[in-house]
Every structure is written in C-alpha cells, then in structure tokens.
C-alpha cells in the first residue's frame, strides 16, 4: 500500500519548507565542525574519500524499496549518479539541495548547471558542467566561463588545489567516458574535451533479423522470376554511416549549415548527404567526435563544428536514403519523373490513327524484405493524347455557349506540359488573360509568351487563347513556416496535353485493343524489360560510380525463387449440381446458374425519354437470362421516363418511388457524369436505402453483345439483393464444440 504523498518522491513523506531549512542549517554546521571549506553558491570540496557503496545499497538509495522490479531496473542507472572509486572525484555534501537526481532516499548529489553546446537548430546536443577551472583559486568558480570548442584547458595551469584534482583532469582528458558520470571535481576536463560526455558506440551495423522460410508441400515445383533486384553493401565496407552535426553558433538556415560544411571537404569528402542536422557518410571517421574549426559562412568569424558518430545504419533502416539515391540514378539514365514514376521518352509509341501516345516507364523503389534489401522494379505506362486543349477550344469557339462548354470540359482535368514534363490539375479558366498578359517576375513585369521563350525556348503561336489556372501545392519549407499564400500557375492551352482517355475512346473496342497490345505485357516481356534495365544500369559508368561511392552493389540478374503450381478450388455454382474445379477465370461457369438466387418481385427502371426503347429491350433480355440462372421473375420492371438528365431530375424520380414495394432500381444514364452518378448513389445508399444498378446508355446499344451484358448485370443485381453466385467447400480440420448452460 502506498504511503501518503507518494509520487515522484518514491514513497517519502513530503517535507515542509521549515524542515528543509532546518536540515540544511544542520548540514552546514556539520561541515564547519569537520573543517570543510565553504565557497559561494553552496559548493564545497571535502577532503575525505568517497563513500564505499555496494550494489545493493546503491540500488536501494535510488529506487523504491516497495518495488523489487525497480531495484533491478535502477542498478545500472544508479551507478551513473555517484562517483565511483576509480574516478575519485570529491562528492559535495547534500547541504546544497535536499533532493537527489531521482529524488530518492539518502544523500544526494547537487545537479550541475548546463551549458549550451549548440545543436543543429541552435539547441544543445548535450549538457556540460558549467563551473570552470580557475587559475587562481584552485577551486571551482561558477562565474568564469570557458568558450566551448575554441580552446582547451591545459591541466598544467591548475596552480593550486589538491594534487588529486590535477590528476583527475589529466586522466579524463585522455579517456572517453565509459558509463560513470564525472562529478563536480571533473568539470574542467569535461569542458576541455566535449567528446568525453558521450559513450563509445559500436561501429558494427545491427544484425539483420533472421529469415523465416516457409515451404509448401502441395502442387508441382516451378521456377518463378520476380521483379526484384538484390541491393547489397560491398564486402568489408560499412555502407551508410550516420553522424550528428552541431555548431558552436546557431545557424537557422539549412543552406548556411550545408555551406559551412563545404569548407571541410578535405575531411568529409565530396560524397555525403546532409539535411542540416543528420549527416550520412560512406565511411567512418577516425574519431567518435570530430571537431572542425572554420569560418562562419556569413560573418567570417570563427566557427566550430562537432560531428558526432551515431551508428552504422543497417540496410533496413536506410530505405528512404536508398530511394533518394535510386531517383538520382534514374535521372542520370535520362528517365523523366512523373508522380514517382519514371518514363523513357526514347521509347514512346505513337498511335496516329487514335491520336494517342504511350509512354513506357517503370516505378523503382527500395524495399526491405526478409532476405535483405531489394529493388522493386514494376513496369507502368502513361497514355497521352496528341491533341491539345487549344484544339478543343477552337472546336467549340463558334458555339454560343462556348465559355460554359470549355469550362465544363477542362476544369478538374489533368494535363501535361511537355516543355517541363510536369502534370497540372486545371482549377479555373482566366478569360481575362492571354499569353500577352503580364505578371510580376523577379526581374520585373514580363509577359507569359516572353517567359516561355526565355525559360523553355517555347514560342506561342496563338495570342487569342485564354489562360488556364492551376493551384500548386505548398512547398515543404512553406508549410514549415506556416505560409498561407496560395501559389498558382498560368498555363497556355496550346502547350497542354490531356492525359488519359475520353469516354468515346474507352467505348471504342479497336482503341482498347491497340492499347492492350502495348500496355499489357506478358511475363516473358516483363522479364526481358527488367534485364534491359539492369544492362542499362551496368552500362553507365556514372551510375556505377554513384553506387560505388556509397559502397553499394547491384546484382546483374533478377531474383528467381521456387514456386508451386496448384489446382484451382472446387466451387459450387448450382446446388442441384456437383462442385466444379475452376481456374483463374470462371465467368463462363458462373453464367450457368447461381448458388443462392433471390427472386425478383418488383423493380423500377429510370431513364430519359430518348432511352425508353433501350429500357424496354433490357427488360425483355433480363427476363430471358434470369430463368437459366435459377432466378424467379415475379413481375416485369416499370419504366419511369425523364425529360432531363440533370442530377435533380434523377433525384426527383427516386423520391417518388414507394420504398416498401420497390425491391431495387435500375438507372440508364445517357452519358458518364460523376455528378449524376454521385447524386444517384448518395440518395440510394444514404437517404432511400435501396439497391441500385447504373448503366451507361451506350452499353446497351450493341445488340450482338446485349445478352452477355445483361447476364453480367443480372449476376450483379442478385449479389446486391443478398444472394450468392457460388460457394466454396471448406471442411473443418478440427471441430470446435460450444456448450451453453442455462
């Protein structure tokens, strides 16, 4: 049971201010009777040897006696708080403070003042005892400071005081701190050698986690090629070494910190990665704390830089760094980066008859796997239209509602400008601006056409086109500073190429077939592409040099693993028949019957008056395909024609339905519109709570494929009504019995 007042006091009853004052006065009397000298600030240097303590006594002093676990946990920490006999520093009495480091029982050590050493952002990276060595008193004077990092204290300058104190200074200057914190008597050596405050760290990278291997027993063995390439560190080299950098003067700008390190390339080399505080090097410096003296990059005054060893990073901990390096390699190989993907413009395929371009590319990322660090290379492609937004602008220029049509077409579209290979989202159209309009440039007012000519060597051909506005994302440093100014980019339509496909192109079977031949690669084509990429990497001398600078090695082959080929599962499609063994695609088997059919009682079909004939044809075919599936049709659908095709037209028709009598609703949309589709789904899901199926009118226009299309729609509707298309037999290996007693 806890004693009264227990908290950070570790079970001690709180003392009143009068009790603390009485104890302090009693301690001062004891010191005077013992003949100990008293100096200002309450610090005293006693001549008697340090108290001999056992480990149990030490742990009991700084831990809670009521918790046996804490006694064990504080043993190591307790050793850091009291001077050991090996570092025989004089321990000042507890008169200057009534509490110890952990506010525990017994005598306590006064907490020394701290001096700011200067961290990466002007913050201290460590604490040093502030009392410095005086050359006249022979004792610790807390009023005179020694400039850190500029000069060291010579032990020979200690002209008075005990011989033990001078010996302590000499010893601590030649050794690193090994775990026991020096007390006030060793403060002079701590200031003279800042490295003595840090513990000697291991320069061996952390061991990788053990690899877990799982091997199956079913199926036949096959060799499988993966899209992974092994990345490893050259044998006998450290890889990536992490250091912490601090300055004697606060430098808030990251650019100034980087500039200040350039003067030390004779020590650090030219290969490094530095973010302003953390420094990565491909080698290990000679000292744990390297002290460099140079000039301030602006004021030309003396600047001291402390580079402290942190650790040799394990490969799995350096994945972000390797991703940055891979990006530099892809840029060196002349790839163009678009949204974390890299495209090779030398292999662009042009489909003139469809006015399309296909950019082949790949995504390259470093990943930490069980077998070590690997590079994942995945193929990708981007479809770009050869026509520009200016072409569409000219096609609708004669229309009376030209501005409205152009706005509806371009807003929220993703475009690409080839002069800088950057994508933008169009947010607005500036009809009051043209390429001849001026904007404020850092060199003064400048027109958009002159800027494009000066910056990208692009000549604007047409001056009667409006400008497109795109809102840019804030930069990282702007977010850190909390700036709220919205940055915008003004684009010329004749340089903006649309990405992706239109609805007409998606509905064109020939277009989709030609695209599939170039974008859907076979496994053999993928493997050949990966081998070409590896050959391209190994054939570049600059890329090999970039890898060698960081002690990295890339395998010349992709990774092959042993796989197993197993048969497909047995699915039950119709309860009247037996289970059927299927492969990856079992759409044909699913059309023979459903496992759990739901009978259709009443449904409503909403469409425009123009699509009324397609709606009647859908009802006829829907009745034909539901019979073989085992779905009973109790009543034909009811057609609700609409005069318009705006979101409110469909919503008004849905609000008039009888929720209790209508089982589900089918909506035929004249075209693909996100606002209409969103309004329909929001009302059916949130407000009306009724299953819905949306169909594009063009989908029902192909009479040859109508039965196949309606069959797939019927399967979707059966699932939305709560039915199931197939079942999988899953036998229990071990039965579990539950007994409930009432």
From TrEMBL:
Matching entries from InterPro entries are given as: PAZ_dom, PAZ_dom_sf, Piwi, RNaseH-like_sf
Domain named Piwi is located at 664-742
The cross-references to Gene3D superfamilies, in alphabetical order and at most eight, read:
3.40.50.2300, paz domain (2.170.260.10)
Q: One short Pfam family name for this protein?
A: Piwi
Residue ranges annotated as coiled coil are none
Biased region (Polar residues) positions are: 129-141, 154-166
- What protein am I looking at? Piwi-like protein 1
